[in-house]
Structure formats: C-alpha cells, structure tokens
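Progress narrative, Year 2. Work on Transportin-1 from Micrurus lemniscatus lemniscatus advanced from sequence curation to structure prediction during this period.
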Amino acid sequence: CLNNIGDASSLIRATIGILITTIASKGELQMWPELLPQLCNLLNSEDYNTCEGAFGALQKICEDSAELLDSDALNRPLNVMIPKFLQFFKHCSPKIRSHAIACVNQFIMERAQALMDNIDTFIEHLFALAVDEDPEVRKNVCRALVMLLEVRIDRLIPHMHSIIQYMLERTQDSDENVALEACEFWLTLAEQPICKEVLSSPLVQLIPILVKGMKYSEIDIILLKGDVEEDEAIPDSEQDIKPRFHKSRTVTLQHEEERLQDEEDGEDEDDDDDTLSDWNLRKCSAAALDVLANVFRDELLPHLLPLLKGLLFHPEWVIKESGILVLGAIAEGCMQGMVPYLPELIPHLIQCLSDKKALVRSIACWTLSRYAHWVVSQPPDMYLKPLMTELLKRILDSNKRVQEAACSAFATLEEEACTELVPYLSFILDTLVFAFGKYQHKNLLILYDAIGTLADSVGHHLNQPEYIQKLMPPLIQKWNELKDEDKDLFPLLECLSSVATALQSGFLPYCEPVYQRCVTLVQKTLAQAMMYSQHPDQYEAPDKDFMIVALDLLSGLAEGLGCHVEQLVARSNIMTLLFQCMQDTMPEVRQSSFALLGDLTKACFMHVKPCIAEFMPILGTNLNPEFISVCNNATWAIGEICMQMGAEMQPYVQMVLNNLVEIINRPNTPKTLLENTAITIGRLGYVCPQEVAPMLQQFIRPWCTSLRNIRDNEEKDSAFRGICMMIGVNPGGVVQVNKL
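Result:
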C-alpha cells in the first residue's frame, strides 16, 4: 500500500488512503506500529504526490481514529503529529495546507492534550491563513474557529473583535461552502454567555448578511423544483419519506396556567424546505437569526424592521419569500416587539397564501404557524377565521410542498386554538377528509397528524353523529388497506388513538376490529421477539414500535370507551400480554404498558385485580428515575390502582413507598414526575394512612410544593384527602416540618 501512496493519479492515491484507513480503523493501528511514523516521514518527501497521498491517508485516519490517537494505547503519537501538522500550515500547496488544518481540526472537540499544549501556535497559524486564496483552506479555518469557540473560547476572547470582523466577511464568501462554515460561527456564538456583549455593536452589520443568506440560491430552486407549480398527481418516491419515530404515551397533569409555547417548538426552524435535507446557507442563516432573536429579543428589531418592509413587499418572489422566512425566524424571540406590527402583517401573510409561486405559499404557511398563538388571542373573526379559511384551501393545494406546509401549520393552529375551532368543525372535517382522496404517500402521513391533533384539541366536541360519519369511513378504509407489517400503521394508529379518546362512546361501532388488531400486533411482536432471542441467527429482531403504538391505541380506547371496553378485555388475553410487555427490555415498551395498565385500572378494574399480586412488584422495580417516562407512568398506574384497591393495597405499600419518597426528594427531577409522585403518595395515604403516615415528615414539604400549581381535579382531590388522613394519624409529621 505505502509504495503506491505517491502515485501520479490522485484517484489511486485517494483509494490507497481509503485502504490504509480501513485497515487502521479495524483496530489494526496497534498491529501496524510503523504505519504512522512512515506516513509522517513521507510528508517530508520532495515529491508533491507522495506528500499529498500521505496527508490524504493521515487525514482519513485522524477522522476515523481520533480518540485512539490521543490514547496511551499507541504511546500518544499526537505529541509528534500535531507539531508536524502545524509546520505544513505554511506549505506552498493549498491542497496540503488544507489537509494539515483538517487533520488538526479532528482533535479540537476531543481537547486532545497535544493540541492543547500547542493551542496558541495553532491559533496564530490559523490567523495567518485567514485570507488564503484557496476556498478549501478558508473553509477549514472557519471550521476550526467555530469549534474553538466551543472548547477554548478563553483563547479567542482577546482576538474576538477581529474574529467577528473576519467571520462577517467569510459569511459573505463567494464560495457557498466557506460562507456556510462561517455562518455556523453565529449559531455557536449565540450559545455562549459572552454573545450579547461581543455582538451588540457588530449586530448592525450581521443582520443584513444573515437576511441576504436566507434567500434561495439558484441551485436550491433547481433542487426543490421551484418552477414546478402543480405536482399533486406525481407519486412520491420512497426516499422522500423520512422514517417516523413514535413518541410513547406519557401521563401528565393539567396546570393552572398552561405553557404558552410547546417545548419542542425549537425544532421546526426551517420546515419550509424540509426535503432539501442538506444543511445549507439558507437554513443556517435562518437558524442563526432565530437563536440571535432569542438572545437579543426586541433589541434586534431596529436593525431588522427597515429591511423587512422592503423584502415583504418586493416584486421579485425570491426576495419576498426570504422576507417571509425572516419574519418566521424571529417570531419566538421578538414576539413582544412584533405585536404592534402584526395587525398589518398577518393579513399580508394571509394574502401571500394565495401567491402564484408555490414556494411563497409554503413559507407563508410556516411563518403564520409561528404567530398562531397571537392570532388565537385576538377576536376570532379578525384573523383566526380568515387564516383558517385560507389554510384549509392550501391543504387542498395542487402543489405537494404547499399541502405539507399547510397541513403542518394547521396542526399548530389546532393546538393553539383548541375549542375555538368547534364552530368550524364541519368545514374543517370536509377539507381534511377530501384531502384523503387527493394526497400522495408522504402527505397522507402528515394528514393523520393533523386529524389526531384536531381530536386532541376539540376533545368530546367531535362526538357528534354528523362528524363521526364524515371522519371515520376514510380512516377505517385506510386501516383495512394496510398490512400488519406496514410502517404507515404507526401514524394511523397514533391518529386513531387521539380520535378514540375524543369520540368516547362515539367510537363504539368501530372499536372491536381496532381492539382486536392491536392485540394481534402486540402478540405478533412478542412472539417474534421470543423467536429472535432463542435463534438470533435464524430470525430478525422485531420492530417493537408496532407493539408500542398498539399499546398506546389500546390506552386511547380504554380512556375513550371507559367501562365499555370491559367486554373487549374479557374476550382477549391482553392481561397476559401486558404482563410480558411490562417486563420488556425496551423502556418505551414498559412506558406504554404502564400507561395502558393505568387506563385499564380506571376502565375495568375487575380484569386487572386478579393480576395485582404479579403486577405490583414489577411496578415497584420500575420506580427508577433514570428512566423518567417509564417511572412517571408506573407511578401514575400505582396511584390509579390505589383508588380501586382501597385498604387491600396494604400488602403492597412497602414495595413502592420508599422509592416514591426518594423520588419526590430527588433534586432536578422533572415537574411531571414530581407531580405524579405527589399524587400517588397522597393516594397511598388515602387508602392506607396507617402505613404511610409515619413517613409524613420525609415528604410533606416537597409534596406541597409539587401540587400547588396543579388544577383542581379528581386526582388532586384524592391526594389532598390522603394527606389530611395521614396528618390525623401522625400530626407530629407536619409540626416537625414547621419547626425546621
């Protein structure tokens, strides 16, 4: 291999490099001790090809084996390699300069000791290459500075003014790859405590640069087929469809004041061109503006508003589109400062939903969804009704990208508007059901989500014969079309789970086949898991998501149908299956199992009661806060079981009480888990006050703190009654706390 590393053909050199790296990465670096010294010696060759070939191989080894190179296993070769690489930063060949920086860059995030020992020389050399004529060199310099910002900001602070000026230039580099690397700098800087201090002055220069970067490039438009306006009849290719991951059911309590913003709000930064999955300058610029808006809040607006008007009303669609994206990107951070302008801007954006360019229509959907909270806070006729009317038209757009953006935006609007949508349900359902016959594969999956979110948002208001008649036939038709092993079942099952919970008794005519199929899915998955564990060479591991989604739909049925689910449970072996699922190695399976156990306990306890002696020890061992959601659902299920068991809970109190008290006193425990733990301790005390009261002093203070913001409901009521009963048994437990 090494003899041919200097071959005249760059292709052969690269192939040899890959061969060497493959051998090295298979753990053979220890078996080939002379490899690294030989490659480092070849760097000194007068022959360019040999030097470049050796560097190419070293760069690949550094990429694949960075950790190993910084370990004692190889006698810390980096002590020699890093100073060697630094010498080549000044080489006359740009290709070799680029290799040298790329090699060192692999060790920044690792904080390799050999690099930390040479950090000042490294930074000095980077500055010397800052205006290199080669774009690849400039790109690697930018990449190095971005990583150093994360791991050695102390070394950059003295030079921060110059670095910021440099990055402002590079973010406008004529080479888009360089500009993209430089743009990452602003994203990383926004995470640093010094951001506000160092960026306050340059902000006036930075904002127009980021805004300019948010415009679609010509290549973006080609890749996105931006000139194709109508494509609804073209089937999706399978690679268009991203893998979906089911989010298992977690039981939560309602608070006095619900959060204004969804916790996962931050991840939809640039949903408009999702299918252009490569991270590009547009996406990076938008993400940077978003995080900077969250840092500077309304202080950002004086630099932005003068630009925004020119963009939003620009005759060129590409520029207008970028203005709408800017408006969406700042929505979260600058909401307060934007409020005075929204009465004028929202109608303009609603108008943009009818723009002749599909890419303008789709970005308008996304940006409007970012302001949905404000729209819903105004009188409905002013903005909600016109927005909803136009979004529903866009759900039936002839362009697939617009359909997708409109469907996602409508789901966000549903979450914000909740029961405000009830007067328009008939109109909404007509549109969503019509979309069933119109959508290709990918958007169908998003449509399920919009329907599920609608059901979650309007709840029992959906339980009207007229609405059920519209909604259920297309859902059941899809349900019948899909095979048990089709992954499209995931979003459909999730959707049906929400619908079943909302429809309550209205779901009764459809419940039997749905229930049966869920039980079959659980059974099949468990059987496959058993065969795989016994003969892993003959069978494939099952996809347990099928089982998780099925368990969650069974929970939805139990919650929605209440006591009506009893006959279905009686005619199935669900309790036996549940016993197995509760002991599964996969946390998400256990999480969904405990949610179902709690719902079945509420709906038909007569079928759960015979299993309690077997179930309680499993619940006790799952009170482990290392698995937050599993622990949360197990805790909630125990509380529900208490209320059904009454005094018969007494033999099981000691199995769970110590763990619950430990959890409620644990620092940094998520609020949801603390609340469910407090409810369950209260309920245990309600049914077995003599057993729980002696521990009152150990949990009363965090107990009160956890439940003070919970809305008054049945669960809170029973927990407080339990506390009162325990105080009756052990008044000293509360008196002692007051003295502390």
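Residues 508-534 form the longest helix (27 residues). Residues 256-276 have pLDDT under 50 and may be disordered.
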